[in-house]
């Protein structure tokens, strides 16, 4: 078991369940946080409707700018989206931020690497609705070593403790 855990931890963190049960509910988002000691990964996924207000391909310069601005906000303000405990001094490094379209719908996806100075302790808070007011509800999953927790955050209220 120890050896298996070691290999799981050493492999890049992935979210095998994420793709299979990906929900597309306008106004809702999903955040998955996976920590292994001081390092981790954060995935944010939300229907584009709740992020930019539409899901069709942007046509006008104004629509293109809305999409660009939203992706920039995700790239630069990941630490507001997921507010890890200040005492842990974590940094979020954006790895991949994009918008992908599937038929009539589109999703916005942001992937961050996490690097902390101290192990996570204290509350994790969220600022999704403050950054994207059309997205009011967030399902959060936290995997911290062997422990898994989840929470439903509505209008940025609530928190999660590792
Ligand atoms: Zn949609």
Provide the low-confidence segments as ranges.
1-20
Strand order of the largest sheet: 4-5-2-1-7-8
- Ligand set: zinc ion
Distance between the termini: 23 Å
Query: Quick one: overall form?
Result: elongated
Q: Oligomer, anyone?
A: single chain
Residues in helix, %: 25-40%
Radius of gyration, taken over Cα atoms and rounded to an integer in Å = 16 Å
**Total E-strand runs:** 8
The SSE string, one letter per element, is HHEEHHHEEEEHEE
Give the percentage of residues in beta strands.
Answer: 35-45%
Largest sheet: 6 strands, mixed
- How many domains in all? 1
Based on the model shown, name its key terms.
binds zinc ion, two-stranded antiparallel ribbon, alpha+beta, 6 helices, 162 residues
Secondary-structure map:
Layout: H1 2-10, H2 16-20, E1 28-36, E2 39-47, H3 49-52, H4 61-76, H5 78-81, E3 82-83, E4 90-102, E5 105-116, E6 125-126, H6 128-131, E7 137-144, E8 147-154
Parallel strand pairs: 1-7
Antiparallel strand pairs: 1-2, 2-5, 3-6, 4-5, 7-8
Please describe what this structure looks like:
The protein is an alpha+beta fold and 162 residues long. It has one domain. It is 26% helix and 39% strand. It contains 6 helices and 8 strands. The strands form 2 sheets. It has a 6-stranded mixed beta sheet. Strands 3-6 form a two-stranded antiparallel ribbon. A hairpin with a 2-residue loop joins strand 4 and strand 5. The site of zinc ion has 6 residues, from loops. Zinc ion binds next to loops.
């Amino acid at each position: 078991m120890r050896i298996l855990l070691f290999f799981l931890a050493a492999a890049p963190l992935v979210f095998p369940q994420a793709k299979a049960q990906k929900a597309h509910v306008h106004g809702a988002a999903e955040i998955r946080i996976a920590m292994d000691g001081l390092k981790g990964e954060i995935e944010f996924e939300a229907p584009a409707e709740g992020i930019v207000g539409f899901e069709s391909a942007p046509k006008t310069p104004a629509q293109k700018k809305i999409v660009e601005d939203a992706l920039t906000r995700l790239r630069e303000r990941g630490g507001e989206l997921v507010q890890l405990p200040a005492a842990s001094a974590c940094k979020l490094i954006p790895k991949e931020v994009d918008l992908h379209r599937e038929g009539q719908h589109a999703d916005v996806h942001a992937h961050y690497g996490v690097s902390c100075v101290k192990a996570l302790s204290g509350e994790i808070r969220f600022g999704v609705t403050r950054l994207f007011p059309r997205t009011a509800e967030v399902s959060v999953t936290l995997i911290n070593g062997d422990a898994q927790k989840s929470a439903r955050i509505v209008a940025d209220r609530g928190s999660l403790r590792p």
